[in-house]
Automatic annotation (TrEMBL):
Pfam families reported for this sequence: ECH_1
Domain of life: Bacteria
Family per similarity comment: Belongs to the enoyl-CoA hydratase/isomerase family.
Name assigned to this protein: Enoyl-CoA hydratase/carnithine racemase
Molecular function GO labels: catalytic activity
Amino acid sequence: MRISLSELADLAGGAADPPPLDGTGRVPEPLLAVDLDAAASPATLVRAASAARAADRLLVGVASGAVPEKVAGLVPALDLTLAAEDGGRACVAVPDPERELRALERAAHANPQAAVVLGQVLRASEHLPVDAALDVESLAYSTLLGGAEFRRWLEERGPRPLPPESAEPVLARREGDRLLITLNRPERRNAYGRQVRDALVDALRVALLDDGIARVVLGGAGPSFCSGGDLDEFGTAPDLATAHFIRTRAGAGRLLHRLGPRVEARVHGACVGAGIELPAFAATVVADPETVFRLPEVGMGLIPGAGGTVSIPRRIGRWRTLHLALTGRPLPAPAALAWGLVDRVEPVSPG
């Protein structure tokens, strides 16, 4: 559904604002496109920005060329803007904004609850302290774990056996004042499951407790740094409340944030989900030229849950984070460098 700037200005409780839920509690229209090419008065733009910040749906601005200067002040209030020319970190420049809009609409309609919750979390946590923002992400993630969209994904995927245990899922060794930490489940592309998570947390705690460690270098063995959450463990927590506390108090995100100035992440291969959510907390992220990054969680009826709604927006902004997560498309290393998701692109040796 496309609306004008005037209609956007009247959204908050106005006649132009369709009900956010249908009679069954579903979200029938999770995404509204906002035409940024049309003229509007300064007063209308002010009202539109105010309405955008309180919107119940995802709001995607669309400009056929460059973002018009007259609406530049509105763009940050939207969830994302598509334009044919680069317009800063609140925009994604694409050759065909209309075609890209249709792709976003399809993704949002496929999993409307996850899509809308993602937008809500990104807005709500944008200016929160990191620890509080991680709690917001996890509470939303736990909510979606109990939702119909994730249940449908689990049913379509079918039952899967839990993986065999590995002797040393994470390797840690000291070299002078450096601690080298290596994810070590190459046969599973270092999937971020319980074993890897717990061993990584133990290694990071050593760095926090030892003032003699000036540098932490985080890498991965095998073909990929990390292929994301271990899918064989999805939905296996005893209950949603326990899942929340494990995710926030026993996860690696908070520790990486606290160690951030001392951490260098060296990534390669397919970095999916947690494979970029966790490294994004580091002060320095070095990516191999062949690295690709992807956030697939919305397609599962979820949102990023390893800290990605916190770490990634602090690098590239909430708008491009939404685009990356909603499309689920791979982002190659050069584009990640241009966006600021990584700091350097150079050959990275596994392990």
